[in-house]
Amino acid sequence: MRLAHATLSRKLSSSACINQSIKNVVVIGGGLMGSGIAQVAAQSGQNVTIVDLDRKVVEKAQNAINTSLQRVAKKLFKDDLAKADKFLTNSMSRLMLSTNPEEAVGQSDLVVEAIVEKLRIKQNLFKTLDTVAPTHTIFASNTSSLPIGEIAEATQRKDRFVGLHFFNPVPVMKLLEVIRIPETSDDTYNRVMDWGKSVGKQTVTCKDTPGFIVNRLLVPYMMESVRLLERGDATARDIDTAMKLGAGYPMGPFELLDYVGLDTSKFIIEGWAEKFPENPLFKPVPTLNRLVEEGKLGMKTGEGFYKYQKK
Ligand SMILES: CCCCCCCCCCCCCC(=O)CC(=O)SCCNC(=O)CCNC(=O)[C@H](O)C(C)(C)COP(=O)(O)OP(=O)(O)OC[C@H]1O[C@@H](n2cnc3c(N)ncnc32)[C@H](O)[C@@H]1OP(=O)(O)O
Ligand SMILES: NC(=O)C1=CN([C@@H]2O[C@H](COP(=O)(O)OP(=O)(O)OC[C@H]3O[C@@H](n4cnc5c(N)ncnc54)[C@H](O)[C@@H]3O)[C@@H](O)[C@H]2O)C=CC1
Q1: Is 90 exceeded by the pLDDT of residue 311?
Q2: Catalytic-residue membership of 215
Q3: Does the beta carbon of 222 sit less than 6 angstroms from any atom of ligand 1?
Q4: Rounded distance between C-alpha atoms, residue 220 and residue 227, angstroms
Q5: With 0-12 CB in 10 A as exposed, 13-18 as middle and 19+ as buried, what is 168?
Q6: DSSP 240-290
């Protein structure tokens, strides 16, 4: 009886929502990216549930979002503290926390996954959610490097599956890469393009190709930076300075690697080295593996290529 009731409520909720805009968003993964994605959705007026494995992680995400929103509010309403406070309070009031993904997606219109960059783990998550999410719910992955099609393989909703690739830090970086797979329906594509704009992003579209646009160009550059360092051609600091002053980048490659996380970077490279063993560009680099083995994941642990003041 419970199952029938659940199926019925899913169908009712799906038919009721089918033509509505995306209002209820669930973000799975409360780390660097998930917290940023949840923030931009909440501050844009949507109901957001952020889900992680551990209550402490979602509470940490909530605190990070609150801190970031204060920076955003100060910029948006610099001359009106009352409005800034209202913006902050309203945005935070739309944010719910959960450690139960199956329950969280029950009323969702869009699920954005931002969990660890491991294909099997992403597939297992979506396979489970596919059995409980409403029929109309769109699934999206924020993966940096994995094939959207291979993630979607785990579900029966390939027509409602896309890549939504945000950039770090999400509240600041304007770009959103939208990736269609051949099965993505026009309705799904149009709805996520509208949603991307509603959360303040400029969208570009890319086929389901490794690294999409930015990372396809960024990863080789980052790999070559580490090889330059490993050959002893220049120090990390000088390479960063050179790229900031010589190429106008806001961060050099080593600052950026520490910023995005050396664990995520390692997962990306390992995935591409496995998929493209013949491409020397993707050959894993000893320095990155050593740092990750030592637990030096970059800013998130206080040390990577550089050391950071504990906040
Ligand atoms: C070792 C070999 C392995 C290599 C292979 C693997 C490589 C993998 C690479 C890709 C990894 C995956 C990444 C991915 O998928 C896609 C990405 O995200 S790529 C990264 C994209 N992001 C960048 O390139 C960031 C570049 N940096 C910057 O833009 C700036 O440095 C930054 C905005 C981060 C900080 O700016 P800065 O001026 O230095 O500091 P401020 O603190 O003054 O901030 C400026 C401005 O922005 C506001 N702000 C900053 N952070 C936040 C925040 N979290 N929330 C809200 N607002 C924020 C701040 O308030 C300032 O606003 P003002 O108006 O200036 O007051
Ligand atoms: N770090 C970056 O600059 C960027 C990362 N990405 C992508 O976003 C995704 C997340 O990356 P980050 O936020 O940097 O990683 P992170 O390590 O900061 O956060 C990942 C979070 O997912 C949680 N998690 C892992 N398995 C889970 C599961 N089964 N269910 C629920 N939560 C789970 C972890 O507890 C962790 O809090 C990855 O796919 C990454 O490639 C995309 C753009 C930029």
Answers
A1: no
A2: yes
A3: yes
A4: 11
A5: middle
A6: HHHHHHHH--SS-HHHHHHHH-HHHHHHHHHHHHHH-TT-GGG---HHHHH
Which of 28, 33, 177 to probe ligand 2 with, by most ligand atoms within 8 A of CB? 33
Percent of the chain residues past pLDDT 70, beyond the cut: 93
Give the containing element (helix H, strand E) for 25: strand 24-28
The residue whose CA is least distant from atom 9 of ligand 2 is 114
Dist CA 170 CA 3 (whole Å) = 38
List the domains of the chain with CATH numbers: 21-207 (3.40.50.720), 216-301 (1.10.1040.10)
Query: Which residues have any ligand 2 atom within 6 Å of their CB?
Result: 28-34, 51-53, 57, 114-117, 121, 125, 142-144, 166, 168, 260-261, 264
Q: Which amino acid is at 311?
A: K
258 CA → ligand 1 middle, Å: 11
29 Cα–ligand 2 center, Å: 6
Ligand 2, atom 19, residue with closest C-alpha: 31
* Strand 95-98 versus strand 24-28 pairing type: unpaired
Please tell me whether the overall predicted TM-score, pTM, comes out greater than 0.90 for this model. yes
49/245 Cα distance (integer angstroms): 41
How confident is the model over 165-181, as pLDDT tens digits?
Answer: 999 999 999 999 999 99
Distance CA 239, CA 87 (A): 40
Which residue do the tokens 């950026």 mark?
Answer: 256
